[in-house]
Every structure is written in C-alpha cells, then in structure tokens.
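Why does this matter for the project? Reviewers at the last site visit asked to see concrete outputs rather than summary tables. In response, this paragraph embeds two records directly. Each consists of the residue sequence and, immediately after it, the corresponding structure tokens. Nothing has been edited or filtered.
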Amino acid sequence: MPAVTNISSYRFARMGGLKALRDELIAFCKQRALKGTILLAPEGVNLFVAGGSEAIEELLGVLRALPGLEDLAPKYSLSDEQPFSRMLVRLKKEIIAFGVEGIDPAAHTSPRIEARTLKRWLDEGKPVVLYDTRNDYEVKLGSFRNAIPAGIDHFRDFPEAVARLPEELKDAPVVTFCTGGIRCEKAAPFMERAGFREVYQLEGGILKYFEEVGGDHYDGECFVFDQRVGVDPGLRETGSAVCFACQAPLTAGEQEDPRHVPDVSCPHCYRSDAEKMSERIARRHAALQRVSEPLPGSRPYENRRPVRVPEWLDGKTILEVLEGLFPQLPRERWLEHFAAGQVLDPRGAVAAPEQATRAGEQWTRVFPGTIEPAVNPAIKVLHEDEAILVLNKPAPLPMHACGRFNRNTLVHFLHAAWHPEKPKPAHRLDANTSGVVVCARTRHFAKLLQPQFTRGEVAKVYLARVHGHPAADEFTIDAPISNEPTRLGAREIEEGGQPAVTKFRVLRRDPDGSSLLEVVPLTGRTNQIRIHLWHAGFPITGDPVYLPDGQRGDTQTLGAGDPPMGLHAWKISFRHPLGGETVAFEAEPPGWAGV
C-alpha cells in the first residue's frame, strides 16, 4: 500500500500575522516530517504537502482553525515515495501571481461547475468552450479534448491571451480549468470583466475531476508540481519526467529520444551546434550594439594614456622622454601640457618637466574633454567557442587605442561587450581595412595562437580593388619595407628594410579603370599590401595615404562617411589552439568587391 499521503489545497481569505504564522507552520511540519510548500499571502493560502496521513490531518486541523479557512477542502492522492525534498513556508504578495488590480477572489468568484456536471454536459454534447488557463508546458502532458489552450508561459500573460480570443466567444458558455482550480479563481472573474457573459470555473480543477469522474473527455495526464511530474486519471504517478535544463515535462517516449541527455537537454530545448552558435552570436551582436550606440567616444571625457619610459631614455627628464617618444610635437606644446597639469608622474601627481625618470616607469598623459571621430561599429561575429573569437571587422574602425582613438576602437567594444572577459586580437588590420579578425578568449589561448602569426604559419587571403589594370594575370612583388614609420605612421619601400613578399592574382578588370585582385601576403609587414601595390603603380582605391601617381595623402584614418578603402581581409586558416586541427574562416566581401 502507498505510504505517503499527498494533499493540495488553497483558500482565498483575508489573512494577517503571516510572519508569526510562517514560523509556527514550519516548526509544526518539520516536527511531523511533512514536506512540501505552503504559500501565505494577505489574500489566502496555497499548499502542496505530503507525509503520513495522521500528520496531514493534524496540519489541516491547524489551518482550519484560522479565520477564513474553516472549510479548507484538500484534494488527496497517494504515492509510494515522498514527492518533495524539503518543507518550505513562504510569504508572497499573491498565492497565485497575476498582477491585475481589482481581481479579488475573496470578494467575488465566477459560478463554479462541479466535475460531475461538466462530465454530463460533455456527455450530452452541450455546446461549451473549455479554456485551459495553464502554462504551455503543463498543457503538453494532457488536457480536455478540444479545449482551447491559453498559450502562455506565465499566468501574468493571461490578460493578453484573453484579448486574442475571438469576439464571438464572449456570447458562448466558457468553462475555465487548471490543475487544482486556483488559477480559475482569478482567470474566470477576469474574463467576466473582459466582457465574457457566461463564465464558469471548474471546481477543484483537473485533479478533482479525476478524483470524482475519472478521465472521460480528457486526453493524457495532468502535470503536478512535485517530483511525480504527472498523474493519470486514477491519480497514479506516471512515467513522465522533467528536463533538468528547460523544466519541460517529458513523456516516456521523449525520455528515449536521443536528444534527451539527462541534466543537459531534451527534445524541447536541444540545440544543434549550429543553432547554439547562431543563438550565441545573436546575443553577442545585441551586446555589441548596446556598447556602441551611441559611440562611447562621441561624448566628452577625460582620456588618460600611459607613457612607459623605455630603456634608451632611462634617467632623462620626463620632458626629454616625451620629446624622444613623440618628436612630432614641439617643446612649446609639451610645456603647455605641463603648465595645464596634463602630465602625471607614476604616483598620479602633477609632473614638472624637469623630473627625472627611470626605465619601466609608467607616466600618464591627460587629454581633457576628448571627443573622438566617428567610426563604423558594425562588428559581425562569425564564430565563437571556448578558445577563439572570429570577427568581420568593419571600416573605418581602429583595432587598438592610437592617435585620436581610444574608446571608439575594436578592443574597447570587445572588452565592454564580453565583460569581464577581455578577448585579445591575435593580429592587426588597418583601421581602414575590413575583414576577418581572430581573437583569443584567454591569455592561455593567446600564447598558442599568436606565435602562428609571428612564424608566418597562418594562411591569409585578401581582396583589393586597385586603380589601373595590371598587365599580368598573376604577379609577385618582393620588395623590402622600411623599419621605421614616416609621416602619419606610413612606411615605404626601402633597401635594407624588412623582407616583404606578396602574391597577386587578377580576378576582374572593370570598365571604370579599376581591377579586383586576390592578394596573398607571404609576410606580415605593416601596410605591406598597400605599399606594394602603390609601389607597383596600382594603389588601392580609397586609400587616404598611398595615393595614385606616387602621391602621399595627409589623412591616416578615413571618416565614417568617406568612400571605403578597397582592401578586405577575406579568408584565413590556422591551427585551432584547442585541438590543433586546421580551421578556416571567411568574411563576406563588402559591396565594392562585387563578388
């Protein structure tokens, strides 16, 4: 014989002294090894409790002694094992959360219909609308035949569900039902207020219907809020379970589904790797949009930039250090910065120009009222796993803080959107170059990924639109590039510079005088592709520095509204730092590429 008695009950009544009552009930139940949940609220009580039959009756005696609960009538069922793991007594604003003002079951409820009366109506074929007020996951296990489900995930969504019902139903007899009847105490009066003229609530809900008349006109089982999950019309525990991940009830068949992995997934929440990636990327795009709209550098702020004293300037004054590191600024300008208190020593105090420095110290430059130029923040996530992050970087967008940019940079956006993580780019692209960028999620993976770029083991393919039509369909440029930048950070071909080799293949020669090239850099020098093409007489379209006819421009980074520079990091392949297998990624070409 089953040894555990289960009861469920509720009563709407004016209640006070709830804190003291909570303490009394929790002590009473624990002394009698009762387990379950009792909800106490100013509007009444709701309970699901299981234990020995004698202890259950003692608890009912205590509750019925309270004003307003004299006729508390529970629904009984039996089980072989205790369905609850602990005893909880909680204080709530409502015993059934609805959140609609003016619905007070203690003052007014809709007419009740007994289980036997409803069965007779259904046996006779009386035209009646059965309206299931439960949540979708409860309805899934079973419901009355031909009932209309509310289609909700939470009872607070019920008013919206009622508003979606056809207008003609307002003149039909409607019977609302739920598990034990408590929802209908609020649902049915709400429907009356919404204009439904004949609304009934099933007394005691599905469980009382099962108890009194069995399962006629009902298909499936009834979801219950304890470890039994579901009961059949005989009020016996079924073989249903609940998914640990999404809490959806699972039939015996669904538990055999290969997508059901205990404690991980079920057929309702299972996502393929591609679906998980898509969902993760959508969340990342939303986060990137939050941190970049408006652009964080568009509002005035105090920008503080570190200045690290190099070994070759050890012992020099801070003025001499700054002049050595930033020779483009005259001494008079630096003295103005010092006079304005815009240089700070390693302790954070305002520095004087004659203060001595030591190698390795970090001083600070202060830029008050900084407003940065606009950039294109439309970063697209192509791939993300536990080790790497692959992006399609838009242009113009600097990757790191430099020059006029500090907050309006790729790294700033990534650190804000991935906080507290700080993804680290494994390589660089020019601010004006769009395309694929690979980042490491942690320092550990950065140490495995970045050396591949340093050793030239990463295969990269670019697209470039250039001025002119190269005569050869394929050609290679092998020309060394200067070690030191010149004006605007630009470099140029220089004998004795760093070796640089780039392979080119003409994809298309267009009537407007431009050509589309596939570009494979075999080395990784700064501005290598741009310099090689400029040197060969085929400068990249839109390049603000390396202009046609061997000319040099006076702007380093394009404005957000300028025509784009025709250089795009198209494809990349490398060894994955987690498993060592070769992986490849591709960034969709921009419109100017026409591919």
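We now turn to the second protein, recorded in exactly the same manner.
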Amino acid sequence: MLAASLNGTIGRAGLLLVLAATVSGALSTAYAIRKGDARMSSQSRWYALLALLGAVVAVAMMQRALITRDFELAYVQQVGSDSTPRIYNIAAMWSALEGSILLWLIVLALLVGAVAWRYRARAGDPLVAWAMIVLLVVTAFFALLSFGPADPFAAGVPGRDFGRGPNPLLQNHILVLFHPPILYLGYVGITVPFAFAIAALVTGRVGEGWLAETRRWALLSWAFLTLGILLGGWWSYEVLGWSGVWAWDPVENASLLPWLTGTAYIHSVMVQERRGMLRVWNLSLLIATFALTILGTFLTRSGVLSSVHAFAAGSVGGYLLAFFGVIVVVSLGLIAWRGDRLRAPGLIDSPVSREGAFLANNVMFALFAFVVLLGTVFPLIVEALQDRQTIVGAPYFDRLSMPIGLVLLFLMAVAPALPWRKASGEVLGQRLYWPAWCGVGALAVAVAVGASGWAPLLAFGLGGFAAGAAGRQLVLATRRQGWRGLVGRTNGGMIVHLGIIIIAVALAASNSYTRSATLTLDVGTPASALGHTFELERIVETQDERARVVKAEVLLDGDRVYRPASTKYLQFGQDIGTPSVRTGVTKDVYLTLEPGSGVRGGDRDAVIRVFVKPLILWLWIGGGIVAFGTLLAAFPSSRRRRPTDPASAPVPVGRSEERVAAERAAGERPDTSRVGTDSDDVPAEELTGV
C-alpha cells in the first residue's frame, strides 16, 4: 500500500514540477526580454532542466507502478496485469491514452533540455530566448494535460488487485517497445524548428539565420518520423496477419500528414538558404507540420476515429483541438504581421532549374497531404453535418496517391541534375543521359521477370531513373573527395533518395503482385499452391494464466518448419493471429492460421492462409539506407557561405534591433544568387569540375 501510494504521490509531484517550471520559465524569459536582461534570460535553461527532472520522475514512478503491479492506480488497473511479461509491462505505459501523453511529455522535456543546453552560451539572444518561450509553453500544455484530464496517477477502484493488461495487439511483438518512442521522437521533434520559426517571426529576423539553427533538428526529426512509420508498417506486417504494411487507416494517415509537409519543408528550405526565396512558404510548411502533429494527436486520442491504432475516447480532445486552433491563428497572424519582411529578394529565373524543381516537388507534396487529409477527415465532416457515418476506403487513397507518387519519382530523377537559376537543354541532356539508361534497364529487368501493368512498370522505370540520378551525383562527389564526398546535406540526401526509391519500388511490387491462397491441410498430406509445397506436421496447443496458444507446424518446401499461431488472451477473450514468415531477397512466403477457426491441439487438419509477397525485405533495407543517409546529411560541410539576410545574425539582448539592422545595412549586401549555408547545395558537377 505504501509503495503504491508513493508511486502516485511522487509521480504527480513530478508532473506538478514540470508544469510549475515551464510556466515560470516562460514568464521569466518573457520578462527578461522585455527588460533587456541577458542574465535573467539565460536562466531559462535551468527551468528547462527542472522540467526534465520532473518528467523523468513521473515516468520513473509510472514504470515502477507498472512493474510492481501497483493496482492502487487506475491506469495500472487498466493496462497492468500479473500475467503480462515484464517487457510488455514497460511498453504498457504508452498503450493507452494517459500513458501516451506521458510519453509525449518526457520526449518533449528531453528535447527542450537538449535545446537549452545546446544554446546555453546564446541564451541572451532574443531568437533563442523566444524559441525557449515557445518550447516551454508547448511543454506546459502537455504537462497540463497529463496533470489534469489525462492523469496517469489517478486513484483506481478501491480494493481491486488485478488488471487485464495491455491490448492483446500490444503484447505479442517486441516492436511495440520501439515503434511508439521512435515515432514520438519524430512527432515531438518538429517542435524545435517550429519554436525557432515563431521566434524568427516575433523578432523580425525572418531571413536564413533561424534556418541554420534548426536544419539538423528538422532533419533528425524527419528521420525519426520516417523510421517510426516504417516500424509501424513492420509491426502491422508481423502482427495483424493480413500481410500488408499500410492500410490507409486514419491513424496511419495522421502520422503520414506531417511527414509529407515535413519532407516538402526539408527540400524547399534549400531554396531559401541558396536564393533567399520561398520564405512565407517555408514558414507555412513548418507551421503546418507542427500543427498536423497536434491534429493527428487529436484524431488519435479524442475517440472520434475508429481504428485498430486509436485510443479509447478520452477527455483531452477538446484541449487538443483548441491548442491546434491557437497554433494556426497565432502563426498566421505572425506571418501577416511580418509580411513586409518576408518578401523574397529574388524570383525563380526559370522553371527548368533546381529551385523550379523544388517548387514543383513542394506542390506535389502539398497536394498529397491535402488528398490524405481530406480522405481522413471527410467522414468526420459528414457525421457532424448530416449525422450519418461514411467510410473513405483504400481505393480513394490508392487512386489519387498513385499519380502523385509517380510524379514525385520523376522529380527525384530530374532535380539532382538541374543547376540553380537556369538549365540549358544541352547540359540537362548530358546529366540525364546515364540516369535515363538506368531507368530503361530497370524497366527491361522488370519486364524480363514477368512484371505487368502500366502503373507498377512505370514505377520501376522511374525508380531506376531516379536511382541513376542519385548514383551519378554520388559517383561525381566521391571521385574527387573519396568517402568524404558522401558527407553533407546534398550527397547524404542522395543516399536518403536511394532508400526512399527502394521503399517505393518495394511497395509497388508488393501491392501489385501479391498472390494468396487458402489451404485446408491434413496432417502428413502435402499440398501445392503458388509455386510452393506445404505439409502440416502437427498442431500444438499450450496454455498458461495469460493465454492459450495454438500453433500449426507447417513444413514449407520440404526445407523448414514454420509455425503460424492463433492466440486467445484469456483476460480479453480475443483471438489474435500471429503469422509466420519465410523472408527472402526476392519474396516472402507469409503463413497465417485463421483466428477463431476452432482448431485445437491434436486436430488432424487446419485452414492456412498463404501469401506470396515480392520484395518485402527491401522495405526494411530501404529504411536502413534512409537512416544512414540522414546521419551523413546531418554533418555540416567544411565550406560555408554568408546568410542571405544580414538581419539573421544574433542580436544581443540590451541592444536595439533597429540600430543593429541599420549598422548592417551600411555594409555591402551579399549576392543573393549564390548564398546558402552549405557547399553541399552546389551540384557535384560544380565541385568536381565536370
């Protein structure tokens, strides 16, 4: 009893510390900026570290409560169980609403603490100070949620000493330990560049300086979001038994939306750094990305959507929707206020140029995001206006996303070959010659192995074209610089492109050429289907206090036994199928034992569902390549250029920004046609002299 009481008391004290530290820190820093007190402004880092301490204490107490089965707490009664393995008790913290908000809070507190420590020497700079205020305010909002309507330490039903454990789908695969935290690192990580964007608008330093501060934060957040989505697809493939990785589920879409706008931002920001253009567009993309993470959180945690991924209806929906509205209104108001300073110093000279390709890329990503957002929220709009339920299914998303994806593959092929400002036909022809042949070769290989259908064949051809363009860039970069040519945003980005291309091609192949069959197998009697032989050796049943598991031992191609299973979790009375997969370089053979089929240990027959899935392994390989390329892209180049906007450099607290701007204006303005932060922005041909 004492331990249980301590868990709740100390945990809530930790949450109260987070709330008090963030509110006090935001108010104190705002007062310091108003008074021009650099010393007081620098104290924001201590408030951030106090908030981090409070979040760590709260999470530690929740983990202790789950591990020690502290059924005094309502949350442990909901997701804890004496029979649940300890490893899944750890993951149970983020298996329901209150714990997921707590996970969001600890990730956010870690990031705010990292920002405070990273910029501790520049805490007096108004840009950093205002960014800290935004970060502390966002943290305070989530601390308020966790301390109030989503309290994970609320007292449970008195005298109850048992719980059912986490949702069965969240306690039968090890990926549940990794998928949510990594996805949250991407979701929450975008708060940092958003905070600097708002700070730039507030201070009026809307040039390229704030971009330099946030480039790596944005890139790493995007990478974690990418990996989180891929791990979610892997979890779906390994757990749900339908053999797919993406179903256009509303909650899946909620994670895809900020990925789309974030990807557009990462590309278009290079145009601003290089040419000083697209300032309003970049700010809008970044604000949209952060706002969509909040909207996605609302869709997931308000109970308005029916999804295998969604949490039960909770009381936080109104808070999240209101916060989303505040973000949109305040951000658009700041952009309108700073409209005169956001005018670009130059225009796009030609649509056939690097910046023209980036703009086209942005338009396609924005269109993609609109299509997904419309399909996701349309049922909610219909229900609100007409009081009837409707469903937007996968055919809508497939039909509209396919042409957008093909155009994006084409742009991935062409953009790396385009120079800045303007491209001549001769130069473009030379640079695209070998990539085009790579596309032809990929198409020929696809046809040779039996691929058919215009859409997948076009995807394979464009994938080869884009891979050839990325490969050409990397060859030219490494010819002069060796392996160091791979380091930096542009060439690291080309490796990321290769990973994305592999993922796109693997998705096209698996979605277009999956074959399936349903087999009724008798023990000892081989059966053939889909080019493979299957023989049921026996059916084994085991049971403990947690679950009853029935496994069918199937000899595949006379080589190895695979064990698809059906698990009935006794606390839930729910059958969950667990597939067994033979993974290969060219295809997977995916076996499932239909849940609820009534098969028991000792039976002589079983119904097995078989799927043959091409190139699935390459989805995960592509994800690894994306992660590797992102690490390389996060490294700075050894060569730097001056920022486009001389007003983007730090302004010390206590000095007039107008005075500093006037002093800078007296100097020579940089050439905006050749500016940026990285020599990586130069095509490899310019670096190597080719």
